[in-house]
Amino acid sequence: MAGSEFDYEGTLEACAAGDRAAFKRLYQQEAGQLLGLAITLLGRRDQAEDCLHDALLKVWVNAERFDRSLGSGRAWIYSILRYRALNQLRGRKQLVATDDGFINDMADEAAQAEELADARSSARQLRACLRLLERPRRHPILLAFYRGLTHDQIAVRLSAPLGTIKGRIRAGLRALQECLQP
After folding, report:
1. Which is higher by pLDDT, 6 or 181?
2. C-alpha–C-alpha distance, residues 22 and 15, integer Å
3. Which value, in Å, is the radius of gyration of the alpha carbons in the chain?
4. pLDDT (0 to 100) of residue 121
């Protein structure tokens, strides 16, 4: 079943009601993609598998907290995985295992940016939406997601005021959410 046809919101609501078959469908739909993202973020398959397990357990246990009015079900699932991975990285006091070149190329819209992104993820729609964002909004989002940097760290790195960075991230995420909505 293609990602755009899968009913993430309905599936999460079924999970919240204790429907194990719905959770199995969700696992079959997203486990491979989630593992790929965890490997990208953590750099080690064994740790990525642990992260994936923890994130999916958290999805199952907290499915009743999902609110479709706040965003897509798929984004909610991926945010849980991302936060688990970032917590793991903070615990071992390391940065996300994505090189600065990848982030800069994506932020600068270099010719090879699409190829670099394709090598890291098959989330074509997200890449397309990221490319639609102007660099001042895209770059801080990429630093936060792939590097796990805080708003303060991004402000220092980009030599911009903290309020400006927060505003750019907020506006960029809103634009991404609108772009990713079916």
Report:
1. 6
2. 6
3. 16
4. 42
Domain 1-97 maps to which CATH number in 1.10.1740.10, 2.60.40.180, 2.40.110.10, 3.90.280.10? 1.10.1740.10
**Number of other CB atoms surrounding residue 77 within 10 Å:** 24
**So where are the chain's domains?**
1-97, 98-182
Written out in words, the top-level CATH class of the domain with range 98-182 is: mainly alpha
C-alpha to C-alpha distances, 127 to 48, 57, 93, nearest whole angstrom: 22, 27, 28
Fold agreement between 1-97 and 98-182: no
pLDDT tens for each residue of 115-138: 444 444 435 677 788 888 999 999
Who's near 161: CB < 8 A, 6+ residues apart?
Answer: 155
pLDDT at 100: 53
Q: How far apart are the first and last CA of the chain?
A: 16
DSSP state, residue 6: S
Residue 170 neighbours by CB under 8 Å, 6+ apart: none
The tokens for 173 are 């995420």
Among 18, 97, 88, which Cα is nearest to 53's? 88
* Residue bearing the bigger pLDDT, 164 or 121: 164
pTM, two decimals, is 0.53
Binned at pLDDT 50, 70 and 90, residue 97 comes out as very low
